[in-house]
């Protein structure tokens, strides 16, 4: 799944819990749940059965830009609100599994570290990525998640 729905949903879930420890756990858990929704992400055109697939430089730039976009949207939505800290912490933990598993500089460490193996295994197994020729089906679900999270954060 793209970064923006993870960031916004993590923020919404954490905000709903009302406290930081519970917010961290539920935002982190939300990542795995959202990855079970049929989705498209930046690496959609790679063969995921190949363990050593890599994002291209353009895809990395696109992913970074998309993370910045999601972060800016979140800050815009929650800045000045009572729950700003909880929402930002939630946004970070909502995205964390992708930051650990999919950032080229340290992904090899996390993909192979024994203490992290169960998390990585879960992350890979729960993915419901669409076939690359059906990628567009992954857009509506993500828009619904983004819209729902924005609605929640605005009304909270
Ligand atoms: Zn993920």
Automatic annotation (TrEMBL):
The chain crosses the membrane at residues 60-78, 83-100, 135-154. It comes from the Bacteria. Keywords: Membrane, Transmembrane, Transmembrane helix. This is Uncharacterized protein. The lineage of its organism: Bacteria, Candidatus Nealsoniibacteriota.
């Amino acid at each position: 799944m793209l970064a923006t729905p993870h960031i916004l949903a993590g923020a919404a879930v954490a905000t709903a819990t009302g406290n930081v420890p519970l917010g961290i756990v539920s935002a982190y858990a939300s990542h795995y749940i959202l990855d079970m929704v049929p989705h498209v992400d930046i690496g959609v055109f790679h063969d995921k059965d190949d363990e050593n697939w890599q994002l291209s430089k353009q895809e990395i730039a696109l992913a970074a830009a998309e993370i910045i976009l999601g972060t800016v949207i979140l800050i815009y939505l929650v800045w000045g609100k009572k729950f700003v800290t909880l929402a930002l912490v939630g946004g970070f933990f909502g995205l964390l599994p992708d930051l650990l598993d999919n950032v080229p500089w340290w992904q090899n460490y996390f993909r192979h570290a024994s203490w992290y193996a169960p998390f990585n295994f879960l992350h890979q197994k729960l993915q419901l990525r669409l076939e690359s020729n059906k990628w567009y089906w992954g857009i509506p679900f993500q828009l619904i998640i983004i819209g729902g999270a924005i609605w929640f954060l605005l009304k909270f």
